[in-house]
Amino acid sequence: MGENANHATALAELGDAYFQDPHAFHAELREESAARPILLPRGLKVWLVTRYDEARLALADPRLSKDFAGFLPLFERHQTGTREATRFDNSLVQHMLNSDPPTHTRLRKLVMKAFTPRRVEQLRPRIQQITDDLLDAVADRGETDLVEALAFPLPITVICEMLGIPLDDRDDFREWSNTLVAGNDPDAVEAAGTAMAGFLSTLVDTLRAHPGDDIFSALIHATDENDRLDQTELISMAFLLLVAGHETTVNLIATGVLNLLRHPEQLDKLRADRTLLPGAVEEFLRYEGPVNQATFRFTTEEVTLGDVTIPEGEFVLASLMSANRDERRFADGESFDITRAAGGHLAFGHGIHYCLGAPLARLEGEIAVGTLLDRYDIALTAEPETLRWRSSTLMRGLYTLPVSLSARGAR
Q: Which family, according to UniProt (predicted)?
C-alpha cells in the first residue's frame, strides 16, 4: 500500500552529522522504504529516494520534471519555518540540467559533440602533462594536501582550457562554486551568483568578439539547424560546464585516493596489477561517488516508486550514493572492492540527464591516480575520522586530504 506525505510526523533534518557520514542514514532509510520525506538544512521538505531500482526509475521518469520555472512556486510551498530562502542568479540556472524536452534536447545537442569519448581521448596527452607538472611541483615537499596539490588544480585547469577561461581566475571560481554548491548561506549564495554571472557574461562578450580555439567559443558561434544559444543560455551553459566539469572530478580523485589508503589491501592489488585501474575508478564512483543527491526534480502527477506513492507537486531527490550501496543491486555494497563488477552504478546519473562529462571525469581520474601511484608511495597523515567533508547535500567531497609522499624512483 502506498505511503503519502503523512508518512512521518517529525521529518528527519539533515545536519552536520549527516554530512560527515551519510551512509548509516541512507542504510536505515533503504531498510524502511524506497523513499521518505525529509528536511534539507534550510528547511525545505523533499522526498529522498535511497534504493537503487527506484532511484534509477526516478532519474528517467518524465513525470519527475526538471523545468526550473516549475521549481519556484514549490520552493515557497515546501519551505518550512521562517528561514530565508536561498536566492540564485537567474542567468545561471537556464541550462540543460534544469530543463525538460524539447528544451533539454536542443541544449544538449548543441554541446554534446565536445564531450564524445573520441574527443575526450584526444585530451589524454594534455591531461597527462598537467598531472606530471603538478606532481613535479610536490616532489620535494614530503607532506602535502592532495586536494590542493592535484585533485583541484588538474580538473580546473582542464575545464578552463576547454572553455577558454583564464587560469588566473580559478581561485575565484573555486570560492564561488563552493558557495553555490553548498547553498547554506543565502547572502553568500546571492553574492557568489552575482559575481559568477558577471564574470561569465563578460567572457561571453569577449569570446563573441574574439573567438578562440576552445569549446565555449565554438558554442557561442555554433548553430544547429539555424539554432543558437542566446546570452542567458550561454552564461548558464558556461556555469554548468565549469562547475560540473571540475567539482565532480576533484571529489572523484581525492575520495578515491582516500579509500585506497583506508583499504591497503586494495591499494596493494592496484599497485600489483595496473590493469585494474579502470575498474578501480568505477568502484571509486560506486562506493563513494562525487555526487550524493542528484539535483532537484518535482512530480507533475502522482508517482509510485516501489512501496511509496509521492503526490503531485513534491520535490524529489535521488541519492546516488545510497543507491550505489544498495545490496539489492550490489552484493556486499558497503564494502570497497576494486575487483568487483561495478558497472551499472548511478554515480553519473541515468536517463536523458546522464552526465555529459563522464568520459572526461573517468579519464582524469585514471591518469591522476595512476600517475600518483607510479611516482609515489603515499600515506595518510591524519586520522580518517578527523577529515572534514563538505557541507553539501549535492556533492560528496573532502575539504583537504593531508598525505605524505615519498618518491618511488625515477620515472
A: Belongs to the cytochrome P450 family.
Give the residue carrying C-alpha cell 599497485: 271
Distance CA 304, CA 358 (A): 29
Strands (E), 11-138: 12-13, 35-39, 45-49, 64-65
- Please list the residues that pair with 403 across neighbouring strands: 144, 380
DSSP 300: S
Alpha carbon distance, N-terminus to C-terminus of the chain: 62
Handedness of CA 270, 319, 175, 355 (dihedral sign): positive
Cell triple for 72: 519556484
234's CB contacts (< 8 A; 6+ apart) are: 204, 219, 220
Give the CATH number, domain containing residue 349: 1.10.630.10
pLDDT digits (tens, 9 = 90+) for 343-373: 999 999 999 999 999 999 999 999 999 999 9
More confident residue, 8 or 169: 169
Would you say residue 6 lies in a domain?
Answer: no
Q: What is the DSSP letter of 302?
A: -
Query: Per the structure, how many domains does the chain have?
Result: 1
* CA gap 79, 333 in Å, rounded: 34
Is residue 47 a part of any domain in this protein? yes
Whether 102 has a pLDDT exceeding 60, the answer reads: yes
Q: Residue 133 sits in which domain range?
A: 12-407
Which grid coordinates belong to 30? 533503504
Q: Decide: 272 and 385 in contact? Cβ < 8 Å.
A: no
Query: pTM value?
Result: 0.90
Chain segment 51-60, per-residue pLDDT in tens: 999 999 999 9
User: Does any domain span residue 133?
Assistant: yes
48 Ramachandran zone, left/alpha/beta (phi>0; psi -120 to 50): beta
Range list of H helices, 273-393: 277-288, 320-323, 358-375
> b/e map of 15-30 (b: 16 or more CB within 10 Å)?
eeebbeebeebbbebb
Scanning 349-411, the segments in alpha helix (DSSP H) are 358-375
Strand partners, 305: 308
Classify residue 3: in a domain, yes or no: no
One-letter amino acid of 326: D
